Amino acid sequence: MAAIISKVRVAAAHEGIAELIVSLEFSNGGHSDVPLNLEAGARLMRSCGVDEVDGLIGQSWVHVRDAISGAYNGTD
């Protein structure tokens, strides 16, 4: 089983700009926190089709990967 989003929280980044901290839970019980800047966070929300951060819980980690990649590369 692939990693899933187990928790999401909003945090203040540089200059007070909001970012998402996404916690991933792996099938072996491991956890990892991934910070997403404003652009990557918005891409993640759109990719998962949710309006609230709680809707991200249970989603696959591939959405996180794709959001980070898309924000970095400026692609859809």
Characterize the structure shown.
The chain is an alpha+beta fold and 76 residues long. It has helices spanning 38-48, 61-73; strands at residues 4-12, 18-25, 31-36. Strands 1-2-3 form a 3-stranded antiparallel beta sheet. Strand 1 and strand 2 (18-25) form a beta hairpin. The protein is globular and about 35 Å long. The N and C termini lie far apart (26 Å). The mean pLDDT is 93.
Report Rg.
12 Å
Mean residue pLDDT: 93
**Main sheet: strands, sense, barrel:** 3 strands, antiparallel
What is the structural class? alpha+beta
Q: Which strands sit side by side, in order, in the main sheet?
A: 1-2-3
What proportion of the residues is helical, as a percent range? 25-40%
Order of helices and strands: EEEHH
Q: Helical stretch count?
A: 2
Q: Distance N terminus to C terminus?
A: 26 Å
Low-confidence stretches: none
Number of strand segments: 3
Q: Tell me, what's the shape?
A: globular
Into how many domains do the coordinates divide? Answer: 1
Strand content: 25-35%
Keywords:
single chain, 76 residues, alpha+beta, 3-stranded antiparallel sheet, 2 helices, 30% strand
Topology:
Layout: E1 4-12, E2 18-25, E3 31-36, H1 38-48, H2 61-73
Antiparallel strand pairs: 1-2, 2-3
Helix pairs in contact: 1-2
